[in-house]
């Protein structure tokens, strides 16, 4: 069985329900199982899964799931291990407005937005800029909560780079709040995760928030 290797994986929140552990292979996409479930789902909403328009749908959804949830067994923090050394550089780095889409774990509906990551390297220990965006995308490829996504990115930065500080901000629109339920289109959820010097130093945090446009 594949076991997720990221340290901050919140096992406690994943243990609800009967017989889960024996049935689960974290991060493995079992396409036949998804196809069977989609067929059941179509029956559940009163559709005929064999009508021509829907005949290919279970396969399509299974392939879409590979794109949306694929790679969840890998640690997205691994991207940050591509590092460079600029001795003495302890200046703020900001990668702003990284677009992402993720799936809300409560409704399995997308939430879509932008993530911004700001950090201050410790003695010039920096990572490739694209690796920060890859890390965001990696954590987004799971059933998620926006708050958890935000913290996981910040914690991966701390773990892999040991920076002086990290601030992650995410702004997203949750379709579970727009196309159903409360139906509040346009409502934006903003979350932040603050680590290290940004936690202690209000002036530095203010500068970071300004650069992040938050
Ligand atoms: N904190 C947080 N809540 C989320 C996120 N995504 C969805 N939710 C919320 O999860 C909650 C689930 O509430 P429930 O009462 O169990 O579900 P529900 O009956 O479908 O709730 P409504 O959406 O209010 O109709 C809702 O308030 C959602 O808005 C997220 O990323 N973070
Ligand atoms: Zn939701």
UniProtKB/TrEMBL annotation:
Catalytic activity, EC: 3.5.4.16
NCBIfam families: folE (TIGR00063), PRK09347.1-2 (NF006825), PRK09347.1-3 (NF006826)
Domain of life: Bacteria
MF GO annotations: GTP binding; GTP cyclohydrolase I activity; zinc ion binding
Residues that hold Zn(2+) according to the record: 104, 107, 176
Sequence ranges assigned to domain GTP cyclohydrolase I in this UniProt record: 34-211
Pfam family of the protein (one): GTP_cyclohydroI
UniProt-recorded name of the protein: GTP cyclohydrolase 1
Subunit structure, interactors included: Homopolymer.
Record region (Disordered): 1-25
Gene: folE
GO biological process: one-carbon metabolic process; tetrahydrobiopterin biosynthetic process; tetrahydrofolate biosynthetic process
Annotated pathway: Cofactor biosynthesis; 7,8-dihydroneopterin triphosphate biosynthesis; 7,8-dihydroneopterin triphosphate from GTP: step 1/1
Organism: Olsenella porci
Biased amino acid composition, Acidic residues: 1-13
Family: Belongs to the GTP cyclohydrolase I family.
Key words of the record: GTP-binding, Hydrolase, Metal-binding, Nucleotide-binding, One-carbon metabolism, Zinc
Catalytic activity: GTP + H2O = 7,8-dihydroneopterin 3'-triphosphate + formate + H(+)
GO terms under cellular component: cytoplasm
């Amino acid at each position: 069985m594949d076991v997720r290797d990221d340290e901050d994986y919140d096992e406690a929140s994943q243990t609800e329900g009967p017989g889960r552990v024996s049935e689960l292979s974290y991060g493995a996409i079992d396409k036949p199982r998804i196809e069977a479930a989609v067929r059941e789902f179509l029956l559940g909403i009163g559709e005929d899964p064999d009508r021509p328009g829907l005949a290919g749908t279970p396969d399509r959804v299974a392939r879409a799931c590979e794109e949306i949830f694929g790679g969840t067994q890998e640690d997205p923090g691994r991207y940050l291990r591509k590092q460079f050394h600029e001795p003495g550089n302890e200046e703020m780095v900001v990668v702003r407005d990284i677009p992402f889409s993720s799936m809300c774990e409560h409704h399995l509906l997308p939430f879509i937005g932008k993530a911004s990551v700001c950090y201050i390297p410790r003695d010039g220990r920096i990572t490739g800029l694209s690796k920060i965006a890859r890390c965001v995308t990696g954590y987004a490829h799971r059933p998620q909560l926006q708050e958890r996504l935000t913290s996981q990115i910040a914690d991966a930065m701390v773990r892999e780079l040991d920076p002086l500080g990290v601030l992650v901000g995410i702004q997203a629109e949750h379709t579970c709040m727009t196309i159903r339920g409360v139906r509040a289109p346009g409502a934006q959820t903003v979350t932040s995760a603050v680590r290290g010097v940004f936690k202690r130093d209000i002036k530095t945090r203010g500068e970071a928030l300004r650069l992040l446009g938050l």
